[in-house]
TrEMBL record:
<feature type="binding site">
    <location>
        <begin position="257"/>
        <end position="263"/>
    </location>
    <ligand>
        <name>S-adenosyl-L-methionine</name>
    </ligand>
</feature>
<dbReference type="InterPro" id="IPR049560">
    <property type="entry name" value="MeTrfase_RsmB-F_NOP2_cat"/>
</dbReference>
<dbReference type="InterPro" id="IPR006027">
    <property type="entry name" value="NusB_RsmB_TIM44"/>
</dbReference>
<feature type="binding site">
    <location>
        <position position="308"/>
    </location>
    <ligand>
        <name>S-adenosyl-L-methionine</name>
    </ligand>
</feature>
<comment type="function">
    <text>Specifically methylates the cytosine at position 967 (m5C967) of 16S rRNA.</text>
</comment>
<feature type="domain" description="SAM-dependent MTase RsmB/NOP-type">
    <location>
        <begin position="169"/>
        <end position="443"/>
    </location>
</feature>
<dbReference type="InterPro" id="IPR054728">
    <property type="entry name" value="RsmB-like_ferredoxin"/>
</dbReference>
<dbReference type="InterPro" id="IPR004573">
    <property type="entry name" value="rRNA_ssu_MeTfrase_B"/>
</dbReference>
<keyword id="KW-0694">RNA-binding</keyword>
<dbReference type="GO" id="GO:0008649">
    <property type="term" value="F:rRNA methyltransferase activity"/>
</dbReference>
<dbReference type="Pfam" id="PF01029">
    <property type="entry name" value="NusB"/>
</dbReference>
<keyword id="KW-0489">Methyltransferase</keyword>
<feature type="binding site">
    <location>
        <position position="281"/>
    </location>
    <ligand>
        <name>S-adenosyl-L-methionine</name>
    </ligand>
</feature>
<protein>
    <recommendedName>
        <fullName>16S rRNA (cytosine(967)-C(5))-methyltransferase</fullName>
        <ecNumber>2.1.1.176</ecNumber>
    </recommendedName>
</protein>
<dbReference type="GO" id="GO:0005737">
    <property type="term" value="C:cytoplasm"/>
</dbReference>
<dbReference type="GO" id="GO:0006355">
    <property type="term" value="P:regulation of DNA-templated transcription"/>
</dbReference>
<feature type="binding site">
    <location>
        <position position="326"/>
    </location>
    <ligand>
        <name>S-adenosyl-L-methionine</name>
    </ligand>
</feature>
Length: 444
């Protein structure tokens, strides 16, 4: 199969199985042996199409004799791939984008579709796309098409952050995030790993807000596998969650929403693999990933168990020095990694997720020893799931208070907030995933 055929397969599979794009992409990658160049090209195609789907559809509609609903789903995806290459990938000659799309439609579809695909793409080449200026009088409609966010979600951004900040955040959500890893300090140091990677032809840059992170440039999947005992792929924003809990060797730590274990293993590294970590998750199957990650990194202090964190467990009452709650959330901070989040139905109906977060907090508060610490974190930038959620909790639980975080790498305005007990990161200003971490101390 050619790279474009594989890309079409991934798009179709993600749509028809209601799958997650990144999981389908990884599954296809594991099942085949693509060259690093092909793997990168396929990724660019499928993530690019997802990031820009509504915009691409708008252009296809403006250049097609058929309404979108009348176009067969496979043909629509062939067109999206073609238009994406024409408008977003400078290195692909236009004639190659068109002829490859035509030959794909000959292989994958029936009848006269090849002629139709050819006509639409040639029209896109002639017109240069479509004129968005008639949409400009309505910011929500305009941003929705320009940045490919459904109108309901675009409205949420505009109402929450104002027009100009919303524009910056929507644009940042369409960027390709850098590859960031956390160094396994049980086995190496940041500098040592950077030198090893450099010798293997991979350039690195230190993360500014943490002392254990590196950005990697030019690392193929194969190279990533080669060094997998020495690092964990994790954005620097996520590294701040375990760091903010500041676990120490010998501590008893609970991680109640643990899978796939990115933060659990970080806790263990900070504890020098000494003490105990009880890691649970609602989904038993997902806990395998935690055990696998621990094995890969040489960690032995994690015990996993399936459990619903919203259900009280009296056996855990006041056993923990530290508790991490990396709760399920709307995920609005990681759209650049998972662009399919944008199109999730009812994405802005927050009531259910807010209620789960509240229940988990209310259950977990009982597990913290007096004087102990609870860290609440999310990968969203929705204020009601973040500070809103914490303030509501503190109002009902005066025996907890926000506790200053000690992180010498955080400066400026962010340091003021860390001193007050929380950190907020945004993809537009911090070149990081949108993330929220809050450190709470149980007074009595
Ligand atoms: C943000 S993810 C956790 C990511 C993880 N901490 C890491 O760093 O790799 C949230 C997790 O909460 C789990 N979850 C959802 N509802 C839950 C519940 N009621 N109790 C426990 N876990 C839950 C999900 O299965 C998911 O693995």
């Amino acid at each position: 199969m050619t790279a474009r055929q594989v890309a079409l397969e991934i798009l179709t599979k993600t749509e028809t199985n209601h799958g997650y794009l990144n999981l389908v992409y990884m599954e296809v990658l594991k099942a085949n042996s693509f060259s690093p160049l092909d793997a990168a090209f396929i990724k660019e195609l499928v993530f690019g199409v997802y990031r820009n789907k509504l915009y691409l559809d708008y252009i296809i509609r403006a250049n097609s004799s058929l309404r979108l609903k009348k176009i067969e789903p496979t043909v629509l995806n062939i067109l999206r791939l073609g238009v994406y290459q024409i408008l977003f990938m400078d290195k692909i000659p236009d004639h190659a984008a068109v002829s490859e799309a035509v030959s794909l439609s000959k292989k994958r579809s029936r009848g006269r579709t090849a002629g139709f695909v050819n006509a639409v793409l040639r029209s896109v080449l002639r017109s240069g796309g479509a004129d968005l200026s008639p949409l400009k009088k309505d910011a929500v409609k305009y941003f929705s098409v320009k940045f490919s966010y459904p109108e309901e979600l675009t409205s949420f951004f505009v109402n929450t952050f104002g027009k100009s900040r919303a524009e910056a955040l929507l644009a940042a959500g369409n960027e390709t995030p850098p590859l960031c890893v956390r160094v396994n300090i049980l086995k190496t140091t940041r500098q040592e790993l950077a030198e090893k990677l450099h010798r293997a032809g991979i350039e690195t840059k230190e993360t500014p807000f943490t002392d254990c992170g590196l950005y990697l440039f030019g690392a193929s999947e194969q190279a990533r596998r080669e060094f997998s005992a020495l690092f964990t792929v994790q954005d620097q924003s996520s590294q701040l969650a375990a760091l903010s809990l500041s676990p120490e060797p010998g501590d008893t730590v609970l991680d109640l929403c643990a899978a796939p274990g990115g933060k659990t293993t970080h806790l263990a590294e900070l504890m020098e693999n000494c003490g105990q970590i009880y890691a649970s998750d609602l989904y038993e199957k997902r806990l395998h990933a935690v055990n696998e990650a621990a094995k890969r990194l040489g960690i032995t202090i994690i015990k996993t168990k399936q459990a619903d964190a919203a259900e009280p467990n009296p056996a855990l009452r006041q056993i923990a020095d530290k508790v991490l709650l990396d709760v399920p959330c709307s995920g609005l901070g990681i759209i650049r990694r998972k662009p399919d989040i944008k199109y999730k139905e009812h994405i802005t109906d927050f009531d259910e997720i807010l209620s789960v977060q509240q229940q988990i907090l209310n259950t977990a508060k009982e597990y913290v020893k007096p004087g102990g610490i609870l860290v609440y974190s999310t990968c969203t930038i929705n204020p009601s799931e973040n500070l809103g959620r914490v303030h509501a909790f503190l109002k009902e639980n005066p025996n907890f208070e926000m506790d200053a975080m000690k992180n010498p790498h955080i400066t400026g305005e962010m340091a003021q907030r860390a001193k007050a007990g929380f950190i907020e990161l945004f993809p537009d200003t911090d070149n990081s995933d949108g993330f929220f971490v809050c450190r709470l101390k149980k007074l009595r």
